[in-house]
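ingest -> validate -> predict -> emit
validate: passed (alphabet ok, no gaps, 115 aa)
predict: started
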Amino acid sequence: QVNLVESGGGLVQPGGSLRLACVVSGFSLDKYTIGWFRQVPGKEREGVSCLSSKNGDTYYADSVQGRFTMSRDNAKNTDLQMNSLKPEDTAVYYCNADVRGFRYWGQGTQVTVSS
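emit:
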């Protein structure tokens, strides 16, 4: 059974940092690309970053390039280090993977950037 569980969200002041984690089960990050998305109420879900299973490369949205870093600890854990956070980064963050023809999402973790 495929499952993704995010953690690490919270309230942080502008300019601060948070580290999100996504733990997966039922598949291996050695074989499937993993991504982070975010969503605010009333807006479409936005792609933030992804880590390729083919070559290990990471890709970032322009809005987070240079501030966010995605990494992988092993075949089951991936992190999103978020630095220099801005109020516009406030959203629910989800990890995502397409596994064996199906799209899977975690339950999400709330990130709020506010003074």
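The chain is about 0% helix and 50% strand.
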